Amino acid sequence: MSHLFWMCSIAGILIFIIGIYGLLVTFNLIRAIIGLELLTKSVTLFLILAGYVTGQTGLAQALAITLIVIEVVVIAVAVGIVLCVFRHNRTIDAQLLRNIKG
Amino acid sequence: MLSLFLLLPFLGIIVLNLPLNGRKDAAAFLYTLSLSIGQAIVVLFNPGGFWQRPDFWGGFFNLGLYADNLTFVMLLSIGIVVSTAACVGWQTISDHRHRLNFYNLILIALIGMNGTVMLTDIFSLYVFLEVTAISSFILIAFQRDLNALEGAFKYIVLSALATVLMLTSIAALLLFSGGTSFAAISAAVKSNSNNIFIISALGLFICGLFIKGGLVPFHGWLPAAYSAAPAAVSILLAGIVTKVAGIYVLIRLVTSVFVFGPIVQINSVLMLVGTFSIIIGALAALKQDNFKKILAYSSISQVGYIVLGLGCGSPLGIAGAVFHLFNHSIFKSLLFVNSAAVEKQTGSTDITKMGGLGARMPYSNATNLIAIFSTSGIPPMAGFWSKLVIIMALWQMGHFAYAAIAILVSVITLAYLLTIQRKVFFGILPHELKHIKEAGIWIVIPAVTLAIIIIGTGLCFPLLFNSFIMPVSSFFK
Amino acid sequence: MVINIIILIALVTAALWTAMTTRLLRSAVGLAITSAILSILIFRLASPIAAVFELSVCAGLIFAIFIISITVTQRVSPEAFETRKKERMTKFWPLPIIVIIVAVVLTQIHFQTTFNLPAQTAPNDVKIILWNLRHLDLLGQIVILLTGAFGVVILFKEWKNG
């Protein structure tokens, strides 16, 4: 069991790194949101893993479900903002985002 | 009865969104105003043994809320700032459909903040922080101008990053503890305090809180979000949202939950980060031309003071930090109210284009001066006392260098704030602004009230010290 | 055991592809695939209800949100697309290298693997925990869903008079 724990946590850390790298490097707003989603995936994995290893699967699942519900709303609001930005400028690309990513 | 703080705003939102006729935005305004002022009054006067009475629906829907002295201070600040923001919002938002959305969102933020200060579970903390954060995102962006959308997006990204750090830390803590309540977590930290997992979990959580509170080096979202938000929303954000989300949680966790862990290292990190925030916030504020950006950097600086006091580790330091938190929410709200008044009357926030408004806007002038004196720590305003307590606590614990920096930066604070006063209110009135009048009554009333609170707290401080201030740190053993 | 390793490698590869691919639409599809593989992994970690949630909400709802937003905002000229594709590759080439290095480094480190827990008193069934013990979280979720509804109405609606 401990072997599984380590492999899963390594995978989680890798996804975390991928998410952060993608978030920092991109100039496109929607890719930034995708990066945030990847980060959330890694955190969900960590939570479920912690529950599995210590036998508290019920608690971990409750936390993960709450997390998923909250993340949906955050993504929806972020996408809403991106749509409003798009309506202003007809673009969600590089030149606009230099303002944002600063 | 504590859950009333959460359920009354919730009820309000439901009622406001039923398809009824009539001036719903006026009803929303009155409801928000009465609820927030009621919250402040209940904290101050404790009518009918409010705090001791249990919820009348006890076993059926038990929320597990808890309130101690620190919670009282926070509820009071929340009540005052939300009522101020509600008043200013009534004056500055002209479209009545926007107003209804605004009041709904403020009620949601109120639920989030009240919940955050009253709960006892680390995961529910995350949930209610998200409630506050999401309502703040929408509040910043709801008038949909481009700057506001940018500020909101930056805030979303950094807030989500902070959330991820906090949740990873919760997952790591879950490996050692049987639940997520504060009691379970602190027991786990206590029995495992040398474990690398626990230490890194605490570090991650505190980094997440630094991002939420806008401390250096994680303050990137703060100036953009504060200055681009609509006027009333800036008041809410600067006055209370950042304080509750970042600083209150930090105080609560460092003093109750993490205290059995590597507390000495945590304290030194806090003091270092606090000092950097003080210095960098003040230096950055010196160079700005935008009224609201100066105030935003000033917020970073003042929150640094709070964290510095917290990192002291002594009860006096914590009492000073909490008192400064309360004062900061009052005087920062007042400064932003005045910036709202100026922005509404002149149509811009660029201080190089203004001047001489003092004669035309006497209330804003006077209250701004009072707020400036309180921020820089000039007696007899309240800010002087809270900074004095923090500096004394630092001196007592032997951190002379930090105390010296704190005093020095107070002088810089006075400098940049007086620059605002001079450029905006004193001087010569430019030609285009000849027709300026005082801001509307719903902006002046909160400004005057806040100024009275500042002066009152400052004058009564010696009386309040032993009865109000020191007991705040009573939870810290 | 081998199945787990395969699932984990597929997960990381899908995440890598999501981050690095040039077309936005493929990125969203990659995200959905990552969610699906993650939900399989969660199911194998003895958390069936969370797996179902993850699959339906993330691989379903969020994917739908992304597709809608991408189709609404996607208008890029071909030359801009080509230059952006090249820029993308130059920016992203360190990522697989970092991932492989970190993976190799982490497999070599050994930390403690037994976690001693205080005696468990709470029931272990998700449904009981969520509905009976964590009322505050439920209230928070309801409020957040309400906020989300507000946000969608406020941000997505076209205004008639600008």
What does this entry show, briefly?
The complex is a heterotrimer of chains A (102), B (477) and C (162). With 102 residues, chain A is mainly α.
Describe the structure.
The complex is a heterotrimer of chains A (102), B (477) and C (162). Chain A is an all-alpha fold and 102 residues long. Chain A has one domain (2-101): Helix Hairpins, CATH 1.10.287.3510. Helices cover 89% and strands 0% of the residues of chain A. Chain A contains four helices and no strands. Chain A is elongated. By secondary structure, chain B is an all-alpha fold. Chain B has a domain at 298-470. Chain B contains 17 helices and no strands. The longest helix of chain B has 32 residues, at 315-346. Chain C folds into two domains: 1-75 and 89-108; 124-157. The radius of gyration of chain C is 21 Å and the shape is flat. Chain C starts with a helix and ends in a 6-residue tail after the last helix. Chain C is an all-alpha fold and 162 residues long. The model of chain C has no long low-confidence stretch (mean pLDDT 77). At the A-C interface, α1, α2 and α3 of A face α1, α2, α3, α4 and α5 of C.
